[in-house]
Design a protein that fits this description.
Structural class: mainly alpha
Largest sheet: none
Distance between the termini: 26 Å
Order of helices and strands: HH
Radius of gyration: 13 Å
Oligomer: single chain
Number of strands: 0
Strand content: under 5%
């Protein structure tokens, strides 16, 4: 829904799904672990990367746990 704001406190398990045409902005605090994680993903993988085990390792190094 346009204009929706969702706040997820640090350390909470969360996820999202959206239609292909969806647009989303994600705001985080300076130096937040998610900022570091996205920076690492951006530096280490090209846009077409699909090596999931390597991506999961970068997430782990940045304090992200992927719930299955």
């Amino acid at each position: 829904m346009p204009g929706t704001l969702v706040h997820v406190p640090a350390g909470r398990v969360h996820g999202s799904t959206a239609p292909v045409a969806a647009r989303c902005s994600k705001l985080t605090g300076q130096g937040a672990s998610v900022t570091q994680m996205f920076t690492a993903i951006n530096k280490e993988f090209p846009p077409s990367a699909s090596n999931i085990p390597e991506v999961l390792e970068v997430l782990k190094r940045n304090g992200v746990t992927v719930a299955t």
